[in-house]
Amino acid sequence: MPAQQETPTQTSNSNNLPYYDVIVIGAGIQGAGVAQAAALQGWSVLVIEQFDGPAQGTSSKSSKLIHGGLRYLETAQFSLVKECLQEKAILQKIAPKLVKPATFVIPVYKKNKRSPFWVGLGLWLYSLLGGSAPRKIASVLWKNFPHLNTQNLRAMYSYEDAQTDDAALTRAVLAAAQEDDAEILYSTEVSAINKTGEGYKVNSNRGSFTCSTVVNAAGPWVNTIAGRCTFGAPMIDVDLVQGAHIVLDTPAFEQCFYFESPDDGRAVFTLPWKGKTMVGTTETHFTGDPKTCTPTADEEAYLKRAFDFYFPALANVKILESFAGLRVLPMAEGSATKRARDTRIVFDNNVDTMKGYYAIYGGKLTGYRATAEKVVQCMAPVLGHSATLVSTKNVHLN
Ligand SMILES: Cc1cc2nc3c(=O)[nH]c(=O)nc-3n(C[C@H](O)[C@H](O)[C@H](O)COP(=O)(O)OP(=O)(O)OC[C@H]3O[C@@H](n4cnc5c(N)ncnc54)[C@H](O)[C@@H]3O)c2cc1C
């Protein structure tokens, strides 16, 4: 059913078009976050979304973890991990019904690329950056994981992170934005953004709107939107890297497990999801229209092989469903695993032709709130806002 939406109610500008301080393109988590942070400052906000409801792009296809990202330590992304762990703590405080603690278990086997020492070191570093204190699970307790393959198991560790329902979190953030009078238009596709003397004119299949600032929060469509800016918006070269998940017809384990794929040693995990077990994820180069992103048979087989290897007694369980989303990563040669996962905000308030245009590239679900606050800080001078900005870190989400 199409999500509830409003007809734009804002004041008109000299062309009799509706005017907003801020227009946000995209009702994924990043667009929702910016809409909430901007509306909280008292700015008038319109969110425009091409689909008939929120979070129908990447923000319902993630691994649903609110985490620092243990594996990003291997690529020395320490500031990203630290910021995400801080954000995890904030989200657990302001959205306890949506962001719940999750225990992760890492079994380390003889043939793993990462030794027990390496895993222990990573967990120790993770805790120094704000993660939970890691725990080594004594071998006498391994029998408490009845289906787990314990052949050639050398060590087991556990630590705490958090899990969410990504689409529900996005809806909650948008609801908070609406509480502060942000408006949302669904089933509305932005076709062009033109620079006007005082700001921007945004054209769509449902009419034109004007604004002082415009935020390109179109996720994997970010460069499509940049290409629709008639003022020559700068673009970052990106690769779209697909990540698939499968949901298995077996009751959820109490814990989340992190493993090395028996195929290639990549980190894969199992998570409880709606009472069942979810396995993720993959890294498959994607080209084409993001709307067509769907798991391939190879991806499903890769994830199922990993599950069967570590839970051989459950190898007969069926795949109930699968889904895939697109990571927006800086273009580079080689493995996607090694690429930076931080968010980049493309803007330049000093260049007249793009003053007030902000494009969000990449990033994590976990860091959406921090990103939104950075975007709003960049916008404030353009909107002539000199008062101290109000933070979303104390606004509860339901
Ligand atoms: C496989 C995978 C697993 C992940 N796991 C995690 C995780 O566990 N934890 C974590 O923190 N992060 C994770 N991430 C990252 C996280 O999911 C993304 O950073 C986040 O969801 C991106 O949100 P977004 O709002 O930028 O994009 P999207 O959710 O894709 O939103 C963009 C929106 O823009 C709209 N749009 C596009 N073009 C137009 C147009 N012309 N007109 C109007 N609207 C338009 C789209 O319809 C879409 O709704 C994962 C990502 C992937 C791909």
From TrEMBL:
The keyword Oxidoreductase is assigned to this record: yes
Keyword DNA repair: no
Domain of life of the native organism: Bacteria
Pfam families reported in the protein's UniProt record: DAO
Coiled coil spans: none
Reported cofactor(s): FAD
Span of domain FAD dependent oxidoreductase: 21-330
Keywords from the UniProt entry: FAD, Flavoprotein, Oxidoreductase
BP-aspect Gene Ontology terms: glycerol-3-phosphate catabolic process
GO terms, molecular function: glycerol-3-phosphate dehydrogenase (quinone) activity
Protein family membership: Belongs to the FAD-dependent glycerol-3-phosphate dehydrogenase family.
Protein name (Swiss-Prot/TrEMBL): FAD dependent oxidoreductase
Species the sequence originates in: Saccharophagus degradans (strain 2-40 / ATCC 43961 / DSM 17024)
